[in-house]
Amino acid sequence: MAEYSPPTSEQEFQANFAQLKPRMNRTEAMLESSRCLFCFDAPCIQACPSGIDIPQFIRQINTGNVTGAARTIYEANYFGNACGKVCPTEVLCEGACVYNLQDVKPIEIGRLQSFATRAQMDSGEALFGPGAPTGRRVAVVGAGPAGISCACELRALGHEVDVFEAKAQPSGLTVYGVAPYKITNEETLAEMAYLQGQFGYSVYYHAPIASRADVEKLEASYDAVFLGIGLGSTSTLGLPGEDSAGCVGAVEFIEQLRQQHHAIAVGRRVVVLGGGNTAMDAASESARMGAEHVTLAYRRSKADMGAYDFEYDLAKGVGVEGLFNVAPVEITGNGKVEGVRFVRTATTGGQVQPVPGSEFVVPCDMVIKATGQSKQTTFLGLIDGLQLDAKGRIILDSRTGQTTNPRYFAAGDAGNGGAEVVNATAEAKVAARGIHEYLMSQDLSS
Amino acid sequence: MPDLSINFAGIKSPNPFWLASAPPTNSGYQVMKAFDAGWGGAVWKTLGVPVVNVSSRYGGVNYRDKRLIGFNNIELISDRPLSDNLREIEEVKKRFPQHAVIASLMVQSRQEWHDIVRASQDAGADGLELNFGCPHGMCERGMGSAVGQEPNVLRTIVEWVMEVATVPVIVKLTPNISDITEPALAARQGGANAISLINTIQSIVGVDLDQFSPYPIVDGQGTNGGYCGPAVKPIALNMVKNCAQHPGVQLPISGIGGIENWRDAVEHILLGASSVQVCTAAMHFGFGIIREMTSGLEQYMREKGFQTIQDMVGRALPNVKHWEELNLHYKVTASINEQKCIGCQLCYTACEDGAHQAIRLNEGTRVPEIIDENCVGCNLCSLVCPVEECITMERRDDGSRHETWQQRTVAGNIPTEFEDERAGGRHHWVPEPAAALGKEKHKTLPGKARQFEPVPTSPPVVRE
Fold first, then answer.
1. Which residues of chain B are in CATH 3.30.70.20 domains?
2. Domain B6-314 carries which CATH code?
3. How much of chain B, in percent, has pLDDT values that exceed 90?
4. Residue A74: its chain B contacts at CB < 8 A?
5. Out of the domains of life, which is the source (chain A) (predicted)?
6. Does domain A20-123 have CATH number 1.10.1060.10?
C-alpha cells in the first residue's frame, strides 16, 4: 500500500510535496542564528560555490538587520532564495559546518538564507540597480540560473542585456527541473521578478535560438553573446520498446510535473532507471504522486551511485525500492509499457558486464529514464570557432567564461556538464565579469 | 543527608533560599505559594507610605536568543495599604511558622520608623530588612539608596530602628557607591544584626532605536532604573566578598544578585553569604526553580561532605587575595586537544586580534597551533573555544617558586623606570606593526564575492 494517494487537487498536491526546507519564522531564525559560532575563515564559505559570506549574513539576521543579510547573500549569488532551498546544503555549506565534527546538528544555513531573501523579496525594495550605461549590448541565450545571473551582473556593470528563452518562464531547471518539495513555482518566479525589476534586462520568451540565421542575427545586433543553454533532452538508451507509451525521460517527466502538478498521472508501478540525483528525484516524485510501487534500478552497486546519500535516503523514505547491479535490456509490452527486462550485472575492473542467463522482468506500467541528458552539440556547432571537449562541453576560460570564439562566453551546465544551480549562478557571475572586461577593451567605434 | 536549614542572625528557615523584597513578595498569596513550592523565606515587598507606580515598569537585556540576562525595573515600594500587608504577613506566619518572613521597611522620620517596626513585629515578622538600596524613585525623596550612600544617615536610622526592634535587623545595601564596606561598617556601628546585598544597580538597560527613548518606555519617555538578573552576579559576588573580608564588619550576610540556580547560590555562600535572596529568576521562571536549587545544593553538599550550610560559608575567602599577593612565578599556557578541536579557529582570531599572537594556522589543517613561547597564559582562547575541555591551560612552572609583587616590592625588584629591564613584557615577542597590513584579508573579507570589487553606483567624487 502506497504511503501517498494520487493528488486530485492543488491542495493535495502541495500536501504530498510539502517543502523539505519550509520557511522559517522570526523566532526560529533568531534561535538558529544564535547558534552560529562565527568561525574564522569559515568552512561554510569555502564550501559554497558562490562564496556567500555566511557567518556575516547569519550575524546580520541575529541583530535584526535582515535587509543587510539579504544584501550579503545577493551580492554573492543572485539566486539567493532558490539556492537556500534547492542547494544540496548537506554536502556544501551545512556539510562543512564545524558543528558536524562535534556531532551537533549543523546550522540550517539554507533555511536562514531563504528567511532573509524571502523577507527582502516580500518587501519589494530594491537592493541593486543598473550601472551607468556603457553603450554595449549583450545577448544572453537561456533564462536559467546562468543566463539570469549573467544578465543581472551585466546590468549592474551598465551593459544592455536581452535574454532569449525558448520556454515560457525564467529560471530554467529551478522551475522546470527541481523536485517540487524543494521549491515552489511561486517563490521561484517571485525571485525572478524581483531580479528583473531591479536590473531591468529584457527577456524574450518562446524565443529559441536554434538556427544559423538566429545566431547570425545575434552576432549582428550584440557586442557579445552569453550561452546559458544548459543541457538537452534525456539521452536515448537504444532499447527495444523504448518508444512505448509510458516510457518517458526524467527531465521531461519532471518538467510536466512542475508545470501541471496533480493534472498529470504516474503509473501504478513505476521503474526509474538511473543512479543520479535526477533518478532519486523522479523516484521520490512518482511515489508522492501515488504510485503503488516504485523501483529504482541502477546498473552498478548502491555505493557507486552518483546521487548524494541524503537524496537516496529521501527516496527510500517515501517507499522507493532500490534494485542494484541490473541493466535494462528491453522495455516489454505491445506499444504500451508492461515491464522492463533486466539482466544482472557484475562489475569487474570498473567495467559493467552482463551476467549471461540472469534475465528477469520487472512488471510495470511506467518507465522513467534518468540516465543523463544529451549535450546541445548540434546547436553549438552553428557557432564559428566554438570548441567542445570530448564530452560535448563548451571549452572555456574558467577565469572569464570566454569560449574559443572570443565574442562568446558561457557558464552553467553547458560548460560544466551538469551541476547545481549554485554552480551555474556563480560561474555566470564570473563570466559577466569576463564579458565586461572584454567589452571595455573593445573599441566601440569599429 | 545534608541539613539545608539555617539560622541567619537569629532568623531560622528550612533552607537558605529566600525571595528578595520585590514584586514576587507583593502579597500573601505569592508568599504562600512560594513557601508551598519549597522556598525557605521571603522578604516582603517594602512597606512604607504606599506609592503610586507608572505603567511599563521593567526592561530587559537579551543576549542573542537568550532572554533577560539582565533586567531592570522602575517600580517603587509597595503600593498597597500597610494594614493589608500586615494582615497577610500574620496569615502567612500562622500557616508557615517554620518559614522566615522578613518585613522590608522604608520610611522617613524617626517616629515613622518606630511605628512601622512595631507594627511589623506585631504582625509576626521574624526579622526586618531596612531598604537603603532602592536606586530610583525613592532616593530622590531622600530614602532608599540616598540613605545607603550616606553612612552617617544610615547609622542614625539603624540606631532609631534598634531603639524599638525586638527581632533581628538586616540592613540592605546599595551597590551604587564606590566602597560597599563604608555603609556596611555604618550598619554595624548602628547596631544592625546583619546586612544584605546587593540591591539593584542604577542603569539604563537599552534605548529604543525608533522612539529614541530608554527602556522601559512610559509614554515615549523613560528613566534610569535598577539593574539585576544574571548579569549582575559578578558585581554582587565582589561586594559580598568585600564585606565578608572586612575585619570591622563581622555581620552575617544575605547574598543577593544574579542568583538563578544552585551554583550561583553556592558561589555567594563560598564568598561569605549565609542566606541568599532571589528575585529576577523567580520573576522569569516562577517559583518552581526552587526544586532545582535545593536539589543541586543538597547534591553539592553531599559530594563535598558539607553537613550544614555554615560549613561552607566563606570557604573561598582565604583564596581571594589582593593582586599583589598572587604568585608571579605561576605559569600556564594553552594546550589544544586536536581530537576535540572542530576547527572553528575562534581561538586563533581571538589571540591574533585580542591577545598576544600566540596561535598560528598551518597549511592542510584547521586545527590551530599554540606558539608556546608567545603564550602568556591569559585564558582567552580557552574562554572563546566552543568545545568543552578542548583548550586547557596547562601548568608549566614546577611549583617550586613563589614570589609576589608585594615581596618583589619589599626586595626592591620591581620596574621603576619607563625603560626598566624588569618590565614584564620586556622580552615578549611582538610582530612588526606593518606585518598586520593585508594579513589574511582574503579570509576576513566576504566570501568568493571578495574577488570582485564592488560595483560603483555613482562616479567617484574627485576632491580638488
1. 323-436
2. 3.20.20.70
3. 89
4. none
5. Bacteria
6. yes
Residues A133, A126: Cα–Cα separation, whole Å: 19
The answer to whether the CB atoms of B449 and A38 lie below 8 A apart is no
Question: Nearest residue of B to residue A46 by CA position?
Answer: B447
Q: How many CB pairs under 8 A join A and B?
A: 79
pLDDT at B200 over 80: yes
Q: What is the DSSP string of B443-460?
A: HHS-TGGGGSPPPPSSPP
Q: What are the distances in angstroms from CA A272 to CA A299, B3, B372? A: 12, 71, 60
Nearest-neighbour CA in chain B from A314: distance (Å): 28
Q: What is the DSSP letter of B349?
A: H
Answer yes or no: is pLDDT of B63 > 80. yes
For residue A37, give the nearest of B348, B386, B456 by CB distance. B386
pLDDT at A189 over 70: yes
CB A60 within 8 A of CB B454: no
Cβ–Cβ under 8 Å, residues B104 and B161: no
Tens digit of each residue's pLDDT (9 = 90 or more) over A143-153: 999 999 999 99
From residue A178, give the alpha-carbon distance in Å to each of A232, B70, B162.
15, 47, 82
CA distance A195 to A170: 11
Q: For residue range B232-242, what is the model confidence (pLDDT) as tens digits?
A: 999 999 999 99
C-alpha cell at B301: 553538599
Interface of B with A in 332-371 (CB under 8 A): 342-346, 348-349, 366
- Give me the residues of B, 26-65, that contact A with CB < 8 A: 64-65
Dump pLDDT digits (tens) for A375-396: 999 999 999 999 999 999 999 9
**With contacts defined as CB-CB under 8 Å, which chain A residues touch B345?**
39-41
**Residue A3 — pLDDT band, cuts 50, 70, 90?**
confident
Q: Is B351 a catalytic site residue?
A: no
Label residue A442 by pLDDT band (50, 70, 90): confident
Q: CB distance B452–A426 less than 8 Å? A: no
What whole-number distance in Å separates Cα of residue A68 and Cα of residue A81? 15
Cβ neighbors of B268 (< 8 A, separation 6 or more) are B236, B237, B240, B255, B257, B259, B276
CA distance A309 to chain B (A): 23
